[in-house]
Amino acid sequence: MPVSGSQSNNNSRYRGRWARWSLTLVLVLLVAIVLGCLLGTMWLKHAMRASLPQLDGQLHVAALSHPAIVRRDPHGVPHITTANIDDLVVAQGYVTAQDRLWQMDVLRRYASGNLAEIMGPVAVKHDRAQRILEIGPAADAALAAMDPGDRRFLEDYARGVNAYIAQAQDHLPAEFRLLDYRPQLWRPRDSMLVALNLAETLSLDFP
Questions:
Q1: What is the pLDDT of residues 74-87, one digit of tens each?
Q2: Which partner for 161 in 10, 55, 177, 186 could form a disulfide, CB atoms 3.0-4.6 Å apart?
Q3: What distance in Å separates the CA atoms of residue 114 and residue 119, rounded to the nearest whole number?
Q4: Which residues are within 8 A (CB) of 80 and not within 5 positions of it... i.e. 6 or more apart?
Q5: How far apart are CA 167 and CA 163, in angstroms?
Q6: Which of 45, 163, 181 lies closest to 102 in space, CA to CA?
Q7: In this predicted structure, what is the pLDDT of residue 51?
Q8: What is the rounded distance in angstroms from the CA atom of residue 28 to the CA atom of residue 9?
Q9: Are 173 and 102 in contact (CB under 8 A)?
Q10: Strand stretches in 41-168, DSSP E
Q11: Which helix (H) or strand (E) holds 110?
Q12: What pLDDT, in 10s, does the model give residues 95-107?
């Protein structure tokens, strides 16, 4: 069917207008993506800097019975001096949480089968396997059978970790913010879970 010149011109103008709108939309989306990436990078840098622990000066840690001195060498490794063994273990828990709080939380979740609470469905299969292995009940049984003198050190360590958690609520590691949750208090059971997870890994993954 023949097409009149005016209809052809209208179609051309319509296609041109649609092409311009499409190009504008693509450019707006690209700008939005770039701005989103820049803002996300700035937020992540700010969150990571804000989560850095205080390594200089003095801190009040109520879990200590006497003052403790923590010196870090050029590699960041802490060297702890205390008046007694209990304070040494408390300080060790505190500085370990300073350096690795999120890793500690993930390790206890990995061992007990609670990763899906923060990672979603992708971790359900792993959690089910860990619960079948009954790593959690094994940790409870090991603690129940432990000599009270030895268990005391796990309690000291937990008090040190929890002292840091209490002080770091406003500047937790960035991973907690990204996953939108806060760490629960550390328990002696959690230290046993991490130890059993190490034993499990060495038993199952050894070549």
A1: 988 999 999 999 99
A2: 186
A3: 9
A4: 68, 69, 70, 88, 91, 92, 95
A5: 6
A6: 181
A7: 65
A8: 28
A9: yes
A10: 69-72, 78-81
A11: helix 85-112
A12: 999 999 999 999 9
pLDDT in tens, 138-172: 999 999 999 999 999 999 999 999 999 999 988 89
Cβ proximity of 160 and 206 under 8 Å: no
- Cα distance between residue 135 and residue 57, in whole Å: 40
Kindly report the backbone phi and psi dihedral angles of residue 145, in degrees, each rounded to the nearest multiple of 5, phi listed first.
Answer: -90, -5
The gap from C-alpha 31 to its chain's centroid, in whole angstroms, comes to 31
Q: Is the pLDDT of residue 89 over 70?
A: yes
8 Å CB contact between 97 and 160: yes
Beta strand spans in the chain (E): 69-72, 78-81
Six token digits for residue 192? 């046993």
Nearest Cα to 21, choosing from 32, 13, 31, 9?
A: 13
pTM strictly above 0.70: yes
- What are the beta bridge partners of residue 72? 78
Is the Cβ–Cβ distance between 88 and 66 less than 8 Å? no
The residue with greater pLDDT, 197 or 207, is 197
Judge contact between 180 and 65, C-beta under 8 A: no
The pair of three-digit structure tokens given for residue 152, joined into one six-digit string: 């005391």
Q: What separation in angstroms does the CA of 145 have from each of 138, 141, 151, 165?
A: 11, 6, 10, 28
